[in-house]
Amino acid sequence: MAELDPRLVAMMRNPGSVVHTPHTMQHLAADLHEVCATMGFGIVYQPQVDLRTERVTNFEALIRWHHPDRGDVSPEDFIPLAEQIGLIGKIGQWVLERACRDAMTWPEEVGLAVNVSALQLADPTLPAIVAACLAAAGLPPSRLELEVTETKLMPDRPATLAVLRAIKESGVGIVMDDFDVGYSALGYLLNFPFSKIKIDRSFTDKLPQDDHLHAAANTIVRVISGLCKDLKMTCLAEGVETEEQLAMLMQANCTHVQGYLLGRPQPLPETHATIRDIPNVLRLMNMRCGHSMGDAQQRQTQAIPFMQIAETANDIILVTTPDLDAPGPFIIYVNPAFTRLTGYTAAEVLGRSPRILQGPGTSRATLDHVGETLRAGQPAHAKILNFAKSGAPYWLDMHIVPLCDDDGTVTHFAAIEHDVTLDKRRLDELEQLADRDTLTGIPNRRAFLRAMKAECDAVDVRGLSTSAIKGPCVAFIDIDHFKRINDEHGHAVGDAVLCGIADCLAENVRRVDILGRLGGEEFAVCMPVVTLRDAKALAERLRCAVAGAEFATPAGPVTITVSLGVACYHPGDTIAELIERADGAMYAAKHAGRNRVRVHAPKSDDRVLQAPEPS
Ligand code: C2E
Ligand code: CA
Ligand code: CA
């Protein structure tokens, strides 16, 4: 067996170490050889979290060895031994293969970080091994990061650098692990384009001590995170164990954290719940941190209990991540007002997109407009229809504001939403009322003309249906000698007759037809898709129905007749032209002796050619 590294021997003698007598180093090395034959290790995963989006960005794979006699042996003890006895390449490859496969069970926005030892980096075949593991699992290189320990990096070795560069070029991230905040480490940062640096646990440990140290640590973290930003690297603090540390890191603009506070190393099946629950966990901590951060600087703003304001507000407050493209943005905060209106608890919506609140009737155009405005970095305002968990629709007046960091980068969207369902309902009722004829209750002139125009516009868009013989037709209906009734019996009787006729017409039109009172004794029916022959037949039916009815009035039953004029719409007609033709036909009916139907049929009308007016 190779001669042992004095570091290892010292470690073995360390009474605090997990490795105990009577086993000697040689025994442990033999055991390691044995377990390597079957690869009887395990892997646990520890979450790394982005504090801005409150989401898990990666899991770090950490190897585990459960020794039958000694119990769990720390990787800090057996990894150096594996390096020493030439097993690290084999173990490292096994971790990589296995972890890449495991990572495929996570959502695609969650990545994997794997530790590699300095000896692995000295192996020129490492880039090929990494590529093969990725390919075998089907994991894209962009989802993998290799964590390289700063002190073991030896960047002055060209061979190591070449290996790192080749891996980096394949799209895999290279992370500087255990970054010692000291002066010497800065040199490494400039020497190689790392994608992330991990501030060592020993530094995080020192964070909340006396006020003097606190201020210095805050400055150091601020400088490092600023530097990382300039160099386009992520800055992560590891070993975060307390909410106090987390608060200090947040205050110093550190964006990423890892540590027991956010999640212990855990077996694969538990990682899925962690991905789901992290936003909740952080939200709770943020709320508590708001009260525990005792720094003088912060006291002023923290004296204002913003969280309490949000939690007690009557209006909805909803905060999302800044990614506008599906599947984002992701909800990271909702206040209780949200739950009261929608029926969804915070736990049910955190991590999901606000799209779950939309449904049929939510205006696509409004959503697009809101999206465009936010994309331009502007606040958006809209009224929108959403749906509660029960499926009940509700209207919101919503203001969405992009929230930015010091550099103007959008970090969140905050929506403040007011429930306007009642206002909207009243408005709809008012609009309905404005569209009704107050006497008869059927659509008034304004509503009728609008509906008829919509029918005609639809024809202009889609063309006339079934070989150009069906289209909208309109019948004008005028009560014969109505003036006489008013003069002889008074207005109350006249009104009763108008109501009776409106009812009679309503009963005899088809469901698709639109009936309206144009004013005085004039009514009209718009028949959307008919031939001229059918339109005339329907008009005839209406005429007969009125003529055959008796209308109850204060002066007793009254019988009466109507004259009707029918015209059909030609694409390109104005509504005024169509009305004029129908009106003309109605007067022709009056002149011909009343109580009859006349059709306006110009020679050029091919629908008339196919459906000549019955004599
Ligand atoms: P590391 O890469 O710095 O990993 C972080 C270590 O800190 C892990 O210990 C982790 O359990 C521990 N840790 C995480 N959060 C906290 C915290 O809040 N407080 C405290 N006190 N500790 C925390 P672990 O798993 O014992 O790993 C120790 C070292 O062993 C790792 O340090 C890494 O250098 C090495 N290692 C682990 N797995 C592998 C591997 O698969 N390959 C290689 N080459 N090295 C590995
Ligand atoms: Ca690591
Ligand atoms: Ca580390």
**CATH homologous superfamily name of the largest domain?**
EAL domain
CATH topology name of the largest domain, in short, is: TIM Barrel
Largest sheet: 8 strands, mixed, barrel
Major sheet: order of its strands? Answer: 1-2-4-5-6-7-8-9
Q: Look at the helices and sheets and give the structural class.
A: alpha/beta
| Mean residue pLDDT | 86
Approximately how much helix is present in the residues?
40-55%
Globular, elongated, flat, extended or rod-shaped: what is the shape? elongated
Bound heterogens, unique: ligand C2E, calcium ion
| Total count of helical runs of at least 4 residues | 24
**Count of strand segments:** 19
What can you see in these coordinates?
This protein is an alpha/beta fold and 615 residues long. The chain has 3 domains: 43-301, TIM Barrel (Alpha-Beta Barrel); 306-421, PAS domain (Beta-Lactamase, 2-Layer Sandwich), CATH 3.30.450; 436-610, Alpha-Beta Plaits. The strands form 3 sheets. Strands 1-2-4-5-6-7-8-9 form an 8-stranded mixed β-barrel, surrounded by 4 helices. Strands 11-10-14-13-12 form a 5-stranded antiparallel beta sheet, with helices on both faces. A 5-stranded mixed beta sheet has the order 16-17-15-18-19, with helices on both faces. The protein binds ligand C2E and calcium ion (2 copies). One calcium ion binds at residues 177-178, 198, 238.
Task: List its traits.
single chain, 615 residues, alpha/beta, TIM Barrel, Beta-Lactamase, Alpha-Beta Plaits, eight-stranded mixed barrel, five-stranded antiparallel sheet, 45% helix, elongated, disordered C terminus, binds ligand C2E, binds calcium ion
